[in-house]
Every structure is written in C-alpha cells, then in structure tokens.
Amino acid sequence: MASSADATIPSDPESSPAPPSGGNRLVAAARSRTMRAPLFWSVVGRFPFYLVGLALVVFTTSRDAGYLSAGLFLGAYSLGTALFAPLIARRVDRYGQTNVLLITGVVYPASLIGFVAFESGSLASQLVCVAVAGATVPPISGCIRALWRGTGELERAGISLETVLFNFFLIGGPLLLSVMLLLSSPGAAIVVGGLLAAAGAIGFATTRASRTQPATPSERDPLGALRSWGLLLVLALVACTAVRTGIYNVALPAFADDQGSAGNVGLFYAAFGVGGILGGLWYGSRNRLWSLKLAVRVGLLVVTAGALLPVLVWDSWSMGLVLVVLGSFEAPMTVILYEIISRTARQSHVTEAFTWSSTISLGGSALGAQIGGLVITLVGTQMAFLCAFGVLLAAVAIAFATRHQLAKTF
C-alpha cells in the first residue's frame, strides 16, 4: 500500500516541525507554520455547523409551521449532506481543494439565504434550498484531515486537535445560537451561520497548504474510497459507535425526563463535550505506548466497558460525571479510528475516505436514534443504555475477528 507521504503537501522541517523530545505535540501541531492558517479558517468555517441545524428547527417552529415541517427541513438538509458529501470529497481528491471549497463556499450560504427568504413562499422552494445547502456543506473537515495526513509525526496530534475542536463546536454552536436568538432572530442565525461557513471555506481555500495540496487524478471508479477493504472494516467500527451515539441522543433526554429535570439534558451534552476535550488533549499530547493495531482493540474494550456506567447512575449529577468520563474515553478512540482511516485510505481517495467516516456517523446516529426510541417505548430507558453497550460489544467482536485482515492493510 502507498505510504501516507505519497499524497501530501510539500513540507520542510521549519514548516512542519517535529516536537522536541518531551515537548507537547498538540502545541507543536497548532503552531506549525504550514497548518496554522488552515487550522484557523477551519475553526471559522465549522463552528456554525451545529448552529445551522438547530436554527433550522427554531426558525421553522417560530413561524407556527410545527415540528412536522421542521423535521422535514432538517431531514432534507441531513439527507443532502449524507448523499452528496462523499461525491464532493471525491471531486476534492480528483481536482484539488481550492475550486471545490470556493464553489461550495458560495452555494452553501446562498442556499441558506434562499431558504430564509422563501419563508412566506412555497414549501417546495424551501425544501429545494435546504436540500441544496445540505448537499454543498463545504468539505472543510475532510480537507484539513487530508492536510494533517501530510504532516508526518504531527498527524496524530493534528487529528487529536480535530477531536477537541469537534467537542468545542458541539458546545459552542448551540451557545452561539442562543446569543443570536437574544440579539436577533432564528433567520438571522441561519444567515450568519452560512456566512461564517463561507468565510471559513474561502479563507481555507486561499491558504498555501490548501492550494499546494496535490490533486490525485485516477481512473473513474464507482466505489472510490470504498474499494479499500481496510477502510470498510474501519467504517464498520465507526458505524457501531455512531449507532451507540444515536441511542444516547434519545436515551439522555428520556433519562432527564425520568428524573424530573428535562432541562438538564443540555448539561449532559456539555459534560460529554468537556470530557471529549480533556480526552483529546490528553491523548494528543502523549506518545502512544502501543501499536495502532493493538490500540484500536484496547480502545474499544475501554469504551465498551465505560458504556455500562450509565446503567449504574442514580441521578442527574452522577450521569453528568459519567458522561465526562465517557467523553474522555471516546476522544482517544475517535483519534485512533481516524489514524487507521488515514493508513487504509487509497492514495487517490484520501478526502473521500475521511468524508465517508462522517457520512457513516450521520447515518449510524440516525439509525441509533430510531432504535433508542423503540427500545425506550417498549422496555424503558435503562434497556436503551444496555442496548448501546450491546452495539459496542459488536464493534469489539468485529475488531477482534478481523484483526489479522486489518493488520495487513496498514
């Protein structure tokens, strides 16, 4: 298999410095002259992604359209992302980052502005706008992960930073929406979110690292990145963890409601996000003691064991503490999975491989939410948490059953 360096940006010791012995790799990654500008613009462009989804719901319901319409719009937005994100990422690999980022950086905010402008128009017009917006979400995440792939020893620290930022966006996006609702309106929040994403995408596209990231033209292949057997195995693990997350997305509000404190559900997600930030900072600043092949199995065992903790809680405070712990377990596992994706991705489909991970996560989470809702309705919240534990057991089984095949791919 081609090495990671085969599809990287040119670098030198000054632009991508290896951290000194005992130095903090996260600090070295954040201070890399090559990655500093892309990292900044990636934060600008991705910070509002969670804001937009929530704002779509608030905007629709504030117009007395009801949750049915809100679900329809959010579903169209999510479906557009799930169906087209891998195809757009494939264009990035084939033609380079710059043009794709510039095009999506224009179409995405224009579609969101159209959605808001058509508030008194036809439902069909709004559906088209929101579906186009979902389909043209700027592929900043896949692009920056492809760049991190080319930073050598800083790659793991860079991916750890990605995990930290994910949790930061998860907490900060809804908070930004709250501020926007206090100062303006849901429609304005959608527009601001779109413009921030546009600024981040266009700014990212103009950085030297993005402009010099080589395109990798290849023969047209319907399977693209999915022709890698190793990637398919990793995506199966990603799917299991995503289903678990979807179950939690339903089980946590149900648990809060059972405790008579439905308003605490936001604090639950914040606790998980704080744990993810702490876990990402810890893992990214240290050398891994085990090989990646062993780390994925150990990580899955730890995450799966931790999934039993929600069954043992007795009130909202204990649940919050458990979620901090679970978040701190989850972050290193996420980094490990992204590292394996980096090593199993076909050289000509790197961005697409990372994007498939996000798409599988989105689909798995949606499936998990359906499973969680069904289990809670039939047998209660505790069984939903046990179901999440069972899904992770399936991931452990996959990891151990395929360990020899996976080891051959990287």
From TrEMBL:
Q: Which organism is it from?
A: Streptomyces spiramenti
Name of this protein? MFS transporter
Pfam families in UniProt: MFS_1
**Entry's transmembrane regions:** 39-59, 65-88, 100-118, 124-147, 159-182, 188-207, 228-247, 267-285, 294-314, 320-341, 353-376, 382-401
The annotated region (Disordered) lies at: 1-24
Domain Major facilitator superfamily (MFS) profile per the UniProt entry, residue ranges: 230-410
Location(s), subcellular: Cell membrane
Topology class, membrane: Multi-pass membrane protein
Gene3D superfamilies assigned: MFS general substrate transporter like domains (1.20.1250.20)
List keywords of the entry alphabetically. Membrane, Transmembrane, Transmembrane helix
